[in-house]
């Protein structure tokens, strides 16, 4: 959000002051370390690929044809650079320091905590035996899976912080090898790290089903030209609902009229609550500010609020769009809207038990892979990382599944001493991002996990409030 009326200078001073914030200072230490390892020429080439991709996407989305407002969430236009994930991460972190008007909040909120955590202990990280090979894998390798490698690095740092000597174990193409060897006094342990993918196949299918229904609805809303916000709750899995359910719901609400104070529609598939978007409030806000394109702030203007766990879709007809910052070959994702003449928005979720259960993905498969990679004759500790994305109801069920799976797992002849599950929640709000973390620990063969790691948080920062509770239980208590 950028103020009008000559306030750019003050906003610029705010951005300069922000560079001294601890998380930015720490993230930049990681950035500088990674880029020095990658090499300047290589970084310039890969950064240009990131910018080129998004510039093409941006030009396609914002054409001279004002009807682009009708364009919906194209599967090929999601804001992430799939071809080179680590370059995309590096670009986001570099931008917060050098290109402060550039951002993609939903992506950067996931990236900043890991870069900051590494930067806080960059001296420790650099001292780990084998770290150069791990950086080669992260920055120069071909597997394009930086989340797993960043997870390994922060786990390694955590062991060093707990007084262990740590080294990365080189991969052996002829046999399965663990990720780390840690030593403290006379004790030696192998450490195996697994990180679950952010998005499950089921979630992607559910989003695709939503986009089908949203795509059918948008032209109808645009034709009727009623600025409306829809709060949509599916009672069945989206794939089991009619593809026309949103159009039917919307038309039913419109034909009944009297939606100034709110209206609703319900059938066996869905509950839809509708309210008019307060366009007077929207116009008043734009009289004072420009708003980042497709940002949480933009959604909050139309929806009346913004839920960091929520899934939203919105389209609008802008009165003007400005690229803020230098016109060069490095800036992209820096578009700000200076007003809208039409707006339509929806928040959606699925309350079906089947949907909740499938989103509450267990870690049993990752645990099995980790156990298979563990040696038979050497004590091993397993760390599994995953992201919590869907709110307390899903995470309560996931926690139950995980505890049941790990407590009942047959480790057979493997000498597994402990299993740690690190649940990370990074989400963006209107003007900030937050990160929460919960560690679930399971001792095996009479081993107490706290004897291995007295401190088992990966991403804790100075001043973090540490409690003996899960962050999803805290989220539930705040509802």
Map the helices and strands.
Blueprint: E1 2-3, H1 8-18, H2 22-38, H3 40-61, H4 85-98, H5 105-120, H6 122-127, H7 131-140, H8 146-161, E2 165-168, E3 180-184, E4 187-195, H9 201-224, E5 228-234, H10 245-256, E6 263-266, E7 270-276, H11 279-288, E8 289-292, H12 296-303, E9 311-318, E10 321-323, E11 335-337, E12 340-350, H13 353-359, H14 364-373, E13 380-387, H15 392-408, E14 416-428, E15 433-443, H16 449-452, H17 471-478
Parallel strand pairs: 4-13, 5-12, 13-14
Antiparallel strand pairs: 1-8, 2-3, 3-4, 5-7, 6-7, 8-11, 9-12, 10-11, 14-15
Describe the structure.
The chain has 479 residues and is α+β, with helices and mostly antiparallel strands. It is built from 17 helices and 15 strands. It has a six-stranded mixed sheet, sandwiched between helices. Strands 6-7-5-12-9 form a five-stranded mixed sheet, with helices on both faces. Strands 1-8-11-10 form a four-stranded antiparallel sheet. Helix 2 (22-38) packs across helix 4. The model is unreliable at 64-73 (pLDDT under 50).
């Amino acid at each position: 959000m950028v103020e009008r009326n000559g306030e750019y200078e003050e906003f610029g001073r705010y951005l300069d002051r922000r560079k001294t914030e601890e998380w930015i200072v720490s993230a930049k230490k990681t950035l500088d370390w990674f880029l020095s390892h990658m090499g300047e020429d290589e970084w310039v080439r890969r950064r240009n690929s990131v910018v080129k991709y998004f510039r093409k996407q941006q030009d396609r989305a914002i054409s001279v044809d004002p009807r682009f407002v009708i364009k919906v969430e194209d599967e090929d236009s999601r804001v992430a650079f799939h071809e080179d994930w680590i370059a995309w991460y590096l670009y986001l972190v570099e931008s917060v320091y050098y290109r402060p008007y550039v951002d993609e909040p939903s992506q950067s909120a996931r990236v900043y905590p890991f870069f900051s955590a590494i930067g806080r202990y960059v001296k420790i990280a650099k001292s780990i035996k084998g770290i150069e090979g791990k950086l080669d894998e992260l920055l120069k390798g071909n597997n394009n899976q930086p989340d797993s490698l960043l997870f390994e690095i922060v786990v390694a740092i955590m062991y060093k912080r707990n007084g262990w000597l740590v080294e990365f174990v080189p991969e052996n193409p002829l046999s399965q090898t663990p990720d780390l060897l840690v030593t403290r006094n006379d004790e030696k342990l192998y450490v195996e790290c697994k990180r679950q993918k952010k998005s499950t196949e089921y979630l992607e299918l559910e989003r695709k089903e939503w986009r089908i229904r949203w795509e059918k609805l948008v032209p109808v809303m645009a034709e009727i030209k009623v600025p409306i916000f829809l709060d949509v709750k599916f009672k069945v899995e989206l794939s089991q609902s009619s593809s026309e359910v949103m159009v039917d719901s919307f038309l039913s609400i419109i034909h009944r009229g009297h939606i100034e104070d709110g209206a609703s529609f319900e059938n066996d598939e869905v509950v839809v609550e509708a309210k008019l978007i307060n366009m007077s409030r929207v116009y008043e806000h734009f009289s004072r500010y420009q708003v980042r394109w497709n940002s949480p702030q933009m959604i909050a203007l139309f929806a009346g609020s913004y839920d960091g766990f929520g899934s939203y879709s919105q389209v609008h007809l802008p009165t003007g769009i400005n690229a803020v910052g230098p016109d060069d070959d490095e800036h992209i994702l820096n578009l700000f809207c200076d007003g809208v003449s039409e707006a339509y928005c929806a928040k959606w979720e699925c309350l079906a038990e089947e949907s909740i259960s499938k989103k509450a993905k267990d870690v049993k498969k990752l645990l099995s892979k980790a156990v298979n990679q563990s040696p038979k004759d050497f004590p091993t500790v397993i760390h599994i990382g995953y992201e919590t994305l869907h709110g307390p109801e899903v995470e309560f069920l996931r926690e139950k599944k995980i505890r049941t799976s790990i407590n009942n797992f047959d480790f057979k002849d493997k000498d597994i001493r402990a299993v740690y599950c690190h649940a990370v929640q990074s989400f963006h709000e209107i003007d900030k991002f937050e990160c929460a973390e919960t560690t679930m620990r399971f001792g095996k063969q009479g081993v107490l996990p706290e004897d291995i790691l007295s401190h088992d948080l990966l991403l804790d920062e100075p001043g973090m409030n540490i409690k003996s509770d899960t962050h999803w239980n805290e989220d539930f208590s705040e509802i």
